[in-house]
Amino acid sequence: MSAVKPTLVLIHGGWHVPASYEKLITALEKQGFEVHCPRLPTVNQSRPPNADLYTDSELIRSYVSSLAEQW
């Protein structure tokens, strides 16, 4: 019997977008992992900025909470 692999949530940096991790995500999915990489609200090229660290943190918290509720 094979072990259940964990769900992975990748959080990109401030100057990257989820597409930057496409090769990594694909490789992990081929290994049987469920992979998520939500786009952070601060990475939107808005001037002046319309999101901040707290906005990003809330997105991450709610995203991970939503995944946890599925279990």
Commentary on this structure:
This protein is mainly alpha-helical. The protein has one domain (7-69). The chain is built from 2 helices and 2 strands. It has a two-stranded parallel ribbon. Strand 1, helix 1 (22-30) and strand 2 (34-36) form a beta-alpha-beta unit. The protein is flat. The mean pLDDT is 93.
| Class based on secondary structure composition and strand pairing | mainly alpha
Trace the largest sheet across and list its strands.
1-2
The number of distinct structural domains comes to 1
- Count helical runs: 2
Main sheet: strands, sense, barrel: 2 strands, parallel
- Calculate the terminal CA-CA distance, rounded to whole Å: 20 Å
Runs with pLDDT <50, length 5+? none
Percent strand equals 5-15%
Note the overall shape: flat
- Secondary-structure element series: EHEH
Arithmetic mean of pLDDT: 93
User: Helical proportion?
Assistant: 25-40%
Please report the total strand number as a whole number.
Answer: 2
Radius of gyration: 14 Å
Question: Secondary-structure map with pairings?
Answer:
Blueprint: E1 7-9, H1 22-30, E2 34-36, H2 53-69
Parallel strand pairs: 1-2
